[in-house]
Predict the structure.
Amino acid sequence: MQVKTKQFNQGAAVAMRNPTIQKNLLDLYHGFHSARLKASAATPDWEALQDRARAIKEHTVENLDHYLALIEENVTKAGGKVYFADDDVAANKYVVDLAKARGVKTVIKSKSMVSEEMGLNHHFEDAGIESVETDLGEYIIQLAGETPFHIVAPAIHKSRQDVSQLFHEKLGSMPSEDITELGREARRQLRQKFIQADMGITGANFIVAETGTVVLVTNEGNGRMSTSMPKLHVAITGMEKVVPSMDDLGTFLRLLIRSATGQRLTSYVTAVTGPRREHEVDGPEEFHLVIVDNGRSKLLANPELRESLYCIRCGACLNACPVYRKVGGHAYGWVYPGPIGAIVSPVLTGIGNAKDLPFASSLCGACKEACPVRINIPRMLLVLRRELTEGTTYPDQKRVSLFERIAFRMWRIGFQNPALLRIGTAVGRIAQIPFARNGRIKNAPFLSKWTRYRTLPALPKSSFRDRWRKLSNEK
Ligand code: SF4
């Protein structure tokens, strides 16, 4: 997938000018966000579940090598094959080579964010293999040639009119604004692909180490069909999706769906352990699990950013974030939008590619409050900001302009020396005259980033010290 994280500002401006996107983002807040609040309030042991989930994730990530080895052992025991891919290149090669070796013509895909990271559909296309997304939202954006807008609801930015027009243009269907009819049309198209497909690709919401089981959570049943209809099933997932046991899985299943959509239980929970066994009536003849690193070990190696690997991709932090709810998902320029994307994308794509993302936050803490695993997102955003301003880890990637550096140095010196501070404020009072209106500074060229979209308080006519002296003299 093309990385466009450098174009955050342009992408944000496009979304903010689009009334459909703004309306849909507002609906998202009143829909998913409000439903999450109700669902968590109605779950008596919610806080205890969060604590438990966090403790499980902490333990698992700290012992990831042990659990990954256990997964390999158990998947192999169940008749499947595990491939550890260092990066997207290795993962794409493995999957496309496998498809070619088995003579695959059509692939059906259940939602997989890691395969988006890899740009797998393009690689299939280059190999002459048809690859069809079967999650309704993913299907819509595949037809539109776009990327997901939201972790849970990839086509949330589109109106029913947009979808009707898209289906009419791409599938030749009659225009209709009836959502049920649009759903039926997608089903008609996809049913044929399910029957035709030689290979099913899925992600994994969780992988249970003690059994080697891949667990999928869907509301449309497409995950179940993608894993049971084709002869070959390949699950592709990031190495952080591990949970140690089936008992632990229960904790995450309760938290995930309540945090994502506010449902008590998702419509389909599918658990796949290896290929079909002799006594089973359906399931694939061959099963492969591709576990992808693709930069995650950089997060694992950094104790300050490691907790980002606890993420269960529920999307709650996106729905709660006042910045995401204005700029939407495409502005973030890669697979993972919103607050968690602002941490993960700079590390996975290279911090120089995504310098604006850690700054795309008001640090209000709504994401931390919404997160079912209690991930401290604002703290990690500050860590990345520090990296970018101080250049400790990436000295060539400093984001602070020379002007800002000089200004803050002078500010520091000034505040340590009252005489210098008086001279500085006297100069500032004169310099601000062309830009100060009603006590606020706007559009000052030397402070353009600070004053283009907001105002700064102007320096008052007299300082506190002067006023104090005046008042004392009047007494
Ligand atoms: S960071 Fe937390 S709230 Fe955001 S997607 Fe991940 S688990 Fe959900």
In short: The CA atoms of residues 307 and 375 lie 6 Å apart. The pocket of iron/sulfur cluster is lined by residues 259, 311-317, 340, 370-373, 375 (CB under 6 Å). The radius of gyration is 26 Å. The mean pLDDT is 93.
